[in-house]
Design brief:
By secondary structure, the protein is mainly alpha-helical. The protein folds into 2 domains: 158 residues, Growth Hormone, Chain: A (Up-down Bundle); 180 residues, Up-down Bundle (Growth Hormone, Chain: A). The protein is 71% helix and 0% strand. The N and C termini lie far apart (105 Å). One of its GO terms (molecular function) is transmembrane transporter activity. Keywords: Membrane, Transmembrane, Transmembrane helix. It comes from Streptomyces gilvosporeus.
């Protein structure tokens, strides 16, 4: 027995774990560390959400490159023709011809884009428009007859609506998210204001610092490159609506947006809004020239566009509308605010102070982008998806026609009462003609 016990290995007795000591202090679970964003950047969360979707950054950057020449081409053409032919009247007539041709051909180009896709139509249309700009340049360099200038610039009418194509992509990507579409439309309007603010400044610098044709060359190169890059982003391109005979979608496809209920009154309001832009630009240049500060007119108009750009970005942070009636009510309020703020330049001009007028233009511009964003949202809500590009191009056509009319009226009267009257007309049209759709 002793030998048996001696042969067993000696092991320590098992130690029972001690009972846990209960504490009255509450222990919080350990969570992974979160990156705390500065408070000043939290308001950008809706815009970060937009560009977190794959492909959105690529097509937005390409579209901005293609959209910047929209504010350069007309100014470059005016400076190029005036420098070589010595006539601003001829330059204005040539650009007016191109504007009228774009108003006629633009909706047809957009209809083809809706039917056959953005990449299929936008690229050849852009190539044809760029060839028209280069033809204008060659006609000026070779001292061709005057009628060739009109024919060449009229060929640029096939220019596709790059802003409308970008909005169509946002509408497709966030078709089930009204808040994201609202933010995207606000961003697009701010981008429009930014391009039309920087485009004329860049065109003027190129045409005066280098040579008269430099603005047209750079604008044509940027336009063609931007559209090619934009068309290459196929995964975000809206699909082509299928044609089904006897289906309501096919009937909507064959029906022009001009016959859609509620759309013509909106286009009339856009026409009056375009008259504000056209007359405001001409009257500001004339007013600054009359006070011996013509070079300051560009900076004054740039501040007006900057106010609109900032207001557009801030407007995108507001919650979207909850229904058609609420959306229409907000549009009327925005148009009313634009009409009220457009009285500020009229009052400031009476003081004779350029500083006061510049501040008034900055404040007046803050109502522009919210009005355009809400109006474009109404256009999208009342236009079938199969005709979305055509519907938005019709709104741009109405704006262009209004700009031409406002420019003529502003040049004739040379008074800030013209844009104020146009804003009042837009407000009356929005209140009396627009109705919620049934």
């Amino acid at each position: 027995m002793i030998l048996f016990l001696a042969s067993r290995p000696v092991t320590a007795p098992p130690v029972r774990p001690a009972a846990p000591v209960r504490s009255t202090r509450r222990v919080r679970p350990v969570c992974p560390a979160r990156r705390v964003r500065p408070p000043g950047f939290r308001f950008l969360a809706p815009y970060r959400r937009l560009f977190s979707v794959p492909g959105t950054r690529a097509f937005t950057a390409a579209n901005l490159l293609a959209r910047l020449p929209m504010g350069m081409l007309s100014v470059s053409a005016v400076l190029m023709i005036a420098a070589t032919r010595g006539s601003y009247a001829l330059a204005g007539a040539v650009t007016a011809t191109g504007l009228a041709a774009t108003a006629l051909v633009g909706p047809l180009t957009a209809r083809l884009i809706d039917r056959h896709g953005q990449a299929c139509i936008a690229v050849p249309a852009t190539v044809f428009a760029v060839l028209g700009s280069l033809s204008l340049l060659l006609c000026i360099r070779c001292h061709a007859p005057t009628w060739t200038l009109f024919a060449s610039y009229a060929a640029t009418a096939t220019t596709p609506n790059t802003g409308g194509m970008s909005r169509a992509r946002w509408a497709h990507l966030f078709r089930d998210d009204p808040a994201a579409r609202h933010t995207a439309n606000s961003f697009e309007q701010a981008a429009d204001e930014l391009c039309f603010m920087l485009g004329p400044v860049l065109a003027t610098f190129l045409c005066t610092a280098l040579f008269p044709e430099a603005g047209t060359l750079v604008a044509a190169a940027c336009f063609l490159t931007g559209v090619l890059l934009f068309a290459a982003q196929r995964r975000t391109e809206p699909p082509i609506a299928a044609r089904a005979p006897g289906h309501s979608g096919s009937r909507a496809r064959s029906r022009t947006p001009l016959r859609l209920p509620g759309l013509p009154p909106l286009l009339l309001t856009f026409l009056a809004t375009g008259a504000i832009f056209g007359s405001l630009e001409v009257v500001t240049v004339a007013y600054a020239d009359d006070h011996g500060a013509r070079s300051a007119a560009g900076a004054m108009l740039a501040l007006q566009a900057a106010g609109s750009c900032a207001a557009g970005l801030l407007y995108g942070l507001l919650p979207p509308t909850t229904g058609p009636a609420h959306h229409l009510r907000r549009f009327r309020r925005c148009v009313g605010a634009m009409a009220a703020l457009m009285l500020l330049p009229l009052l400031a001009a009476r003081t004779g102070s350029l500083t006061a007028l510049t501040c008034a233009l900055l404040l007046a511009g803050m109502a522009t982008a919210p009005t355009m964003v809400t109006g474009m949202g109404l256009i999208q809500s009342r236009t079938p998806a199969a005709r979305l590009n055509e519907g938005m191009t019709l709104s741009v056509t109405a704006l262009l026609a209004g700009i031409a009319t406002g420019s003529a009226a502003g040049g004739y009267a040379v008074d800030y009462a013209v844009p104020a009257a146009a804003a009042a007309l837009a407000c009356v049209l929005a209140l009396l003609t627009t109705r919620p759709p049934r």
